[in-house]
Design brief:
Layout lengths: L5 H4 L35 H13 L19 H18 L2 H7 L2 H9 L10 H21 L3 H21 L7 H12 L6 H6 L6 H13 L5 H14 L11 H11 L4 H13 L3 H15 L12 H13 L3 H13 L10 H13 L22 H8 L6 H16 L5 H11 L3 H8 L4 H9 L3 H17 L3 H17 L8 H13 L4 H13 L6 H14 L1
Length: 550
């Protein structure tokens, strides 16, 4: 329950960055003198838009954002929400508990300020409950990031209740439909084993209502429309592929947003995550290169320490775009700028990718035998040893890096290089080259693996072949591989160890959903039935939501 689907969207926040940070000296008495502010001018929507635009540009300056009390205008609910959104990004970005503790009081201060609008006589009354809900959601996400699970879950419950109440009273208030849709869709995706938590705190999921609210929020012009389109793209990428019928696919949504907002780094960051998940790293990289050429004096490097997460993002884009030298440059910049922040996310993954760059060098003829990484000397490689000794394992990529080291240490040998190259090429969208790489594995090598009972390697080979053929739209050839993966994995008791069978079943469900719903249902249910593997929750969520849409 505590993963309440931030789940998804806010897993992207470690990539966010801002230019200059400071702190404003918040007045804890601010919520107690609202009666003194009644005669003051309200902050305009234009001013609110300016702050919101600064957030999307990731350029705002906390230190300079201090207004003298006597010149202060009354903050509207909309402004308070945008201001609170800024705090949330800053805290999540820095992953610094001190920053969290310094800004934590702002939640109650803003909730107190909102009380002046808790009267039907106020022209902002319809925004009152919505704004409270937004602020509670922001802090639910923050609390979750600091492992305060129940504090987070309770705020989600309060926010959901407020949004439902306001929706009933003001059904045409479009701004509230974004967050209501997100909660409804994400709650509907909660795995069955967490349903007890929903019942415990009195929340019900409603996928159909969530989809309807999302469609209304994306199709109408309003203050948060751009943000809502990003959420739709992320939801379609990470949860439901065809969330809105007859709607644009996630890749098309973000490409349109990049075209319309080429200078907004938050759009570039979120869009890059969608494109990367769609194996379109080169498209994302081109967007960043255009940004550098037009807005950064043709420099795609970041001087300030707050930019290190963008260095990691660029490193990933170069890595999967088959530009290892540039990838290495940005991974090293990312690690260099961390300084004393040793528990930061993506450290293990960066060392892992640096190791892979050395190990998978294409021009093998230029490698000095004495420098080549082998199963015998791998444990002496600095990048390899750093994977274990540095960073945290909060993210899936860091966990995967740690798992790689453990596997090598346990088996005392490196994995098959062709399989690894094929995996990276597939993730980067170069399916034809991935297939050619995989085809370098001979039948005699496969027979040798079978004799040595290396079931995991054979299973991955079959799975990779199926995925690549699927990506190349050769479905008639992909289907037998997917089915063989399920049979082979079950025969050799690999279902609870590896995700290959579960994801093969999921992909078969997607293939059949438009031509044989009965068969699609069988495979989606089979995907859910495989438990204990690495991506159980993600695959279960996708299969479950696909079943609801059949």
């Amino acid at each position: 329950m505590y993963r309440i689907g931030v789940i998804l969207i806010f897993s992207i926040t470690p990539f966010f960055c801002m230019d200059i940070f400071g702190f404003e000296n918040s007045n804890p008495q601010r919520g107690l003198y609202s009666s003194l502010m009644v005669q003051k001018e309200f902050i305009s929507k234009t001013e609110t838009q300016k702050l919101y635009d600064e957030i999307f540009d990731l350029k705002f300056n906390y230190a300079n954002y201090q207004i003298k009390e006597e010149d202060n205008k009354t903050k509207t609910p909309l402004y308070l929400v945008v201001e609170d959104f800024r705090d949330m990004l800053f805290i999540l970005l820095t992953e610094d508990k001190k920053n969290y503790e310094n800004l934590e009081k702002n939640e109650e201060i803003r909730l107190d300020e909102l009380e002046k609008f808790n009267t039907k006589k106020s022209s902002y009354y319809k925004e009152y409950k919505w704004a409270k809900a937004e602020i509670k959601l922001h802090w639910a996400i923050i609390k979750l990031s600091f492992d305060e699970k129940w504090a987070s879950a309770w705020r989600v419950r309060q926010a959901y209740k407020l949004l439902l109440e306001n929706e009933k009273e003001f059904p045409h208030f479009i701004e509230q439909k974004k967050s209501l849709a997100l909660l409804q869709i994400v709650l509907a995706s909660i795995p069955q084993k967490y349903k007890w938590a929903l019942d415990l705190i009195g929340m019900e999921a409603n996928l159909e209502s969530g989809i309807n609210n999302l469609q209304k929020s994306t199709s109408q012009i309003h203050f948060f429309q751009k943000e809502t389109l990003l959420w739709q793209a992320l939801l379609q990428t990470y949860l439901v592929e065809d969330l809105i019928k007859s709607g644009d696919r996630s890749k098309q949504i973000v490409q349109n947003l990049i075209k319309k907002h080429p200078s907004e780094r938050l759009v570039l960051v979120a869009s890059s995550l969608v494109l990367m998940k769609n194996e379109s790293h080169k498209t994302a990289l081109l967007a960043w290169q255009n940004y550098a050429r037009n807005y950064q004096n043709n420099k795609l490097t970041f001087d300030k320490k707050e930019h290190f997460s963008q260095e990691y993002l660029l490193a990933e884009l170069y890595f999967y775009s088959e530009k290892p030298k540039k990838a290495k440059f940005h991974y090293l910049n990312f690690l260099k700028n961390l300084n004393s922040i040793q528990n930061r996310n993506f450290i293990k993954d960066s060392y892992y990718k640096l190791f892979l760059i050395e190990w998978l060098r294409e021009n093998k003829s230029t490698i000095d035998d004495s420098n080549e990484i082998t199963s015998q000397n791998v444990k002496e490689n600095n990048y390899f040893t750093s994977i274990s000794s540095k960073g945290s394992t909060k993210t899936a990529v860091d966990k995967n890096a740690k798992k790689f080291v453990e596997s090598v240490n346990e088996s005392n040998h490196l994995p098959n290089k062709e399989l690894y190259q094929a995996r990276i090429l597939t993730d980067g969208g170069n399916y034809q080259k991935a297939l050619e790489t995989l085809n370098q594995i001979t039948n005699s090598e496969l027979q040798k693996w079978e004799q040595e009972k290396q079931f995991e390697i054979i299973l991955e080979y079959k799975y990779r072949k199926g995925r690549i053929l699927d990506k190349l739209s050769q479905l008639n050839q992909a289907i037998p591989f997917y089915k063989n993966v399920i049979e082979y994995s079950t025969l050799h008791n690999q279902n609870e160890i590896h995700y290959f069978a579960a994801n093969s079943a999921l992909q078969l469900g997607f293939i059949y959903q438009n031509q044989d719903k009965k068969l699609a249902k069988i495979y989606f249910e089979k995907a859910i039935s495989f438990e204990g593997h690495q991506y159980e929750e993600s695959i279960t969520q996708k299969a479950k939501l696909a079943l609801k849409k059949l």
